[in-house]
Amino acid sequence: MSAVIQKQEHKQPHYDRLGNLALAMALPEQDDNEDELQKALRLSGILQTTLDINKLIEIFAHEIIRLVDYQSLSYTYNELDINHTIGKAAAHSCTYRLVVSGESLGELVISRRKKFTKAETTLIETLLCGLVYPLRNALLYKKAIEAAHKDPLTGVNNRASMDEIIDREVNLSLRHNNQLSLLAMDIDRFKKINDGYGHAVGDCVIKAVAEAAKAAIRSSDMLFRYGGEEFLILLSNTDRDGAQLLAERLRQKIEETCIICDGAHVSTTVSIGITCLQQGDETRESLFSRADAALYQAKSAGRNCCRFFSAEGK
User: What is the distance between the alpha carbons of residues 48 and 45, in angstroms, rounded to a whole number?
Assistant: First the structure.
């Protein structure tokens, strides 16, 4: 295996150069490359022992520092929001955009306090040949796992991932005595939207509501499409007051949103049921049951409102 490196001089401060790395499956013609080839093949074998991307980068960083001294190594892949950094960035760096068969595998930056020599950068580029194929496999695996847990219409967590995640969060919150709240949200009179505008517009409304919910919640909160027009929102470290404030903010945001689907202007509202974790024998099922009962109370109260369900039914 050999690496074909397309180099471009990069004169911005703190960067020695910018490299675009493309891999070709071919043996080197020069005997001088034999040692570097063996290093790349050995590294590739080590890296193929894991499909965890963070662990993969850590193994790569650990192995190459035996051969090239550096202060920091960072890897980013924006499509999956991956940003893994080891060490502290220094003044001089080499940046590589990793590409295989036209497919971008992200960007890797290696930095240190003094400039890299040509021999060192050549060695880094050869070692990258041992990284890219294990990295591509790890990225494909992560994409497959995420796709299996995402709702294809809205892109939020699906029901298949819901049970596992809520079980985990309930157990963690009980163990550490943390606050945890759950919202059950349903689009009001959704059948009328489907009947009046068609299912394509109905799907558009579901996507718009999901987008509004994603924009309203925090990055630590988790949104699930439970089924049809119903969503669940898990709020970590959130008590009753915080859950009610977020639910009301979300209800207002959706009410004020004008959704345009296939030229049709559609207004919709949601009803939201709220409950909080209770210490003791709480389970995912009991937590969800109360949130669902609170949602039913909101529907019975005329829709487009939020209701909290407590153990006393208040």
Answer: 5
